[in-house]
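ok trying this again, last paste got cut off
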Amino acid sequence: MILILTFVSVAKMVVGVGDCLYTSSLFILTFLTIIALGISAYDIIYNAKTRGYYPYVYIASGSYFLTGFVTVLLGWCRLNHVKKALANIPKPYMPIKQNNLPNSVFNLITDELKHVSMIAWTSEPKPEDVDLPGWGRPGSDYDEIHFKSSMIDTFSLIEQNALKNLSLKRLPSMSVQRYIDFLIEHRAIDRGLGHAYVECYERARFSEDEISQEQYTEFMKLVLQLLRRLGYNGD
């Protein structure tokens, strides 16, 4: 990439010097032409006026004036034509095709463009690298799982498994904590597991902080133990 920038800088410098020489020579030649025409016009008009050939004075003056006017008009038209032609050139176009450059320069530019493309591709964030707080990492076993919502939904699983025993039916007035205490009183689940579940459940439901993947994993292990105590035979 450094070689390309150096090559472009040298090319711009050479083009700039060439443009300066071309413009300077053009102005010098134009200035000399105007002086030569002015001297010749003065000589013709002066000689005609001195000898009393006044019609020649008017003819010479009119001819030089008309010539100057036509020259300025043609130059102005040419300048506008060049400006329009330059404006019509597509700006995004860059002569970097193989037939526009020497093979060595083309190969150098191609290799550098491939290198830049590889850097851009490797620096682009991958889905598996995105780690949103409270959500499972894409591509993992927890993909698209919101930990808080999933933890709150586990209570319905516990209630469904507890209903296998009709005496453990939950009353409408029972809160989550009261129902877990109810299951503990009827020896359906262990007291320590029940209190740990309520603590994690309430943190997920009422806390503003998101749940980490490690906390969610430990909580689900706790839920699995509770479900097995209630007769759940799955994994």
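PB: full thing came through this time. Residues 1-8 have pLDDT under 50 and may be disordered.
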